Amino acid sequence: MSGAIQVPFSLLSCHMTNMQDDLFGDAPLQPPAHSSNQTASEAQPDFSLLRSMAKVIPAPAAQELGALARQLPAQLRFGVSTWSYPGWEGLVWDGEYDSSTLSKHGLGAYHQHPLLRTVCVDRTFWRPLTASQYAAYAGQVDDDFRFVVKCPASITDAQARGEEGRARAVNPAFLDPSLVVQEFVRPTLEGLGAKLGVLVFQLSPLPWGWLSRPAALFEKLGHMLAAVRAALSAHGAVIVAVEVRDPELLGQALVDTLKAQGATFCLGLHGKMPPIEAQLPILRALWPGPLVCRWNLNRIFGAYGYADAQKKHDPFNAILSEDISTRTVLARTIRGITGAGQPAYVTISNDAEGCAPLSIQMLARAVAA
C-alpha cells in the first residue's frame, strides 16, 4: 500500500528523539493522588451492610489489593472488557452468581475492586445503547470511575454483516459524521456525563476496496473524527482513540489524521495485529499523548482464535496462557507514559491469558515493581 509502513515499523521511530524513547521506557512513578491519604482499613467496605443492600457483593479478598493499588500512578486505570463472568468468584465476587445477575448488577461490586477503575463497554459495538442505558451504568459506580466505550460497528465497519459475521453488503453508514454524533457521542455524553473516559473507534478488517485507497479512507476517517471532536468541544477530558485491525494502516497517514483531529491510537493486542513492540512507534509519533490499550487475545491463538481461547480458558479463573513478554513491554510503556503525567487506560480480556482480573494483578505488580 502506498505510503504505509510495514512491520516491524522500525523506520517510523528513527526520527523520534531520545527523550521520547525514554518516555516509553522505565520512569519513576508519581504518587497516586486519588488515594494517598486513605489507609487500608479505611478502604475496607462493610460487607455485612453490603449483603443486606446489594444483589452482588464484592470479594472480600480483593480488598487486600488496596496496598498495591496505592503504589500505582493516579493517571492509570485498569479494567476488563465485560463484568459478567461467574468464574471470578473470590477474585471479584464474594460467591456464586449466574451471568445474568452479574450482567445486571455486577458493575456495582466490580467497581469496588481496588485495581478496577475503568471498564470497556463492548456490547455497544454490536448495538447502540440509549442515554438511559448509559445512565444506568453510571449510577452503579462512584464519581472517580471512568468508562471506555466502543463505537457501534454499524458505523466503524465498512461492510454490513450477517448474524455469523460474514460480510453481505457495503455499509452506506461507514464513518458517517452525523450518524456517529447522533447514535454514539450524544447518548454516551448524556448518559455517562463526567464518567465518560474514552471513546474507541475500532475499524473492523477492511475490504481491499478501502485498503487500496488509503488517502480516501483517511480523509473519510478525518471527517468523522472532526465531527466527534466538535460534539466533544465542552468535554476536553474525553479521549478519542482509533483502533485498527489491518497492519497496513500503521503508517504516517494514520498518524497525521489522528494528530489533525486531536485523537490517539489505541493499542490493539491480539493475533490480527503485530505485537506491541511494533505498534509503539505510532504512539511515539503522536507524543505527547495518553495511552489507550485493549489487550484482547493472546497471539498464540492466531488472528481468529477467540473460540479456541474461550474453550481453553473457561471458566476464566486462572492464568492458562501466560504472556510475560507482552506484559513486560506494556508495564514499561505504562510507567513511561504515566510518569510523564499522561493518562493511561488499559483494559484486558479473559482471552489474553485466561483470567482478566489476575492478568491485571500481575500487570499492576509489574508497573509498581
UniProtKB/TrEMBL annotation:
SUPFAM superfamilies xref list: TM1631-like
The source's superkingdom equals: Bacteria
Where is region (Disordered) located?
23-42
Supply the InterPro entries for this chain.
DUF72, UPF0759_sf
Q: Where is the composition biased (Polar residues)?
A: 33-42
Query: Which PANTHER family would you find in this protein's record?
Result: DUF72 DOMAIN-CONTAINING PROTEIN (PTHR30348:SF4), UNCHARACTERIZED PROTEIN YECE (PTHR30348)
Recorded protein name is DUF72 domain-containing protein
Upper classification of the source organism reads: Bacteria, Pseudomonadati, Pseudomonadota, Betaproteobacteria, Burkholderiales
